[in-house]
Amino acid sequence: MFRCFTKEVCSLKRFTCLSLFPEIIKASALSSIGGRAVERGLYELEFIQIRDFAVNEYGKVDDALYGGGVGMLMMAEPVFQSVTKAKDDFRQSHGEGREKLIYLSPRGRVLDQQKARELSELDHLILLCGHYEGVDQRILDECEAEELSIGDYVLTGGELAAAVLIDVISRMLPGVLPAAEAWQKESIASGLLEEPQYTRPAEWRGRAVPELLLSGHAARIEAWRQHAALDLTLKRRPELLTKLPMTHEEIRTWLEAREQKTKASLPLLPGEQMKKEEKSN
Q1: Which run of H or of E encompasses 278?
Q2: Which of 3, 58, 69, 90 is most deeply buried (CB count within 10 A of its CB)?
Q3: What pairing do the DSSP bridges indicate for beta strands 203-204 and 207-208?
């Protein structure tokens, strides 16, 4: 039932980050799985300091807003020069390729797994990180930037959002994880929330692992996981189910399992165990 409806065509070769504070992105993107992937040459990370293209010898890259307002706005020319360098660098290394400029901004479409998959099919992704009050609108228009948000809240700059985007996309690139299934079956990537998971010991502080998971019956365990993920998604994110490709037979099987739900066949969702214990006391 956990059918991944996206082919593995992730081909991204390079992320280029344009920022006044690239060290913020490096702290995340060059650590753990991502850092090892870069060392192995599975994809490239380039960091361009926008201040290198300042309009004067004092490093000026921002100015007051026309029409008044609080704060400073990043100027168009330093950003434009940074974008130009990013494109030139990529062409010198890889030739022509499919590339896109992304401006991390709360005004943009909110990032989801489907959007991340689309971006992973490009060859070069240029991430523009605004700071202060953002960037001059003319640079976004001139370079046909796409605005992308990671949520409905405000950050100091786009660097943390860029780090999130790099992490989401890089996990889908070939070789970064042991197998494509490692991300395709994860929460959200499969179209569902991930089922409850357990490890040793089999009983902890009076809470036991669902018996079926200890049975060794692979087919029944897989069905248990699928139904548990569906149950949790219905409870917490029901809107996701409208996008899930399921056959009538799969829906019927799931609904029947819900009707016959027992501790051995389907898990109690987080919070239900406590309610059950309270009733028994």
Answers
A1: helix 272-280
A2: 90
A3: antiparallel
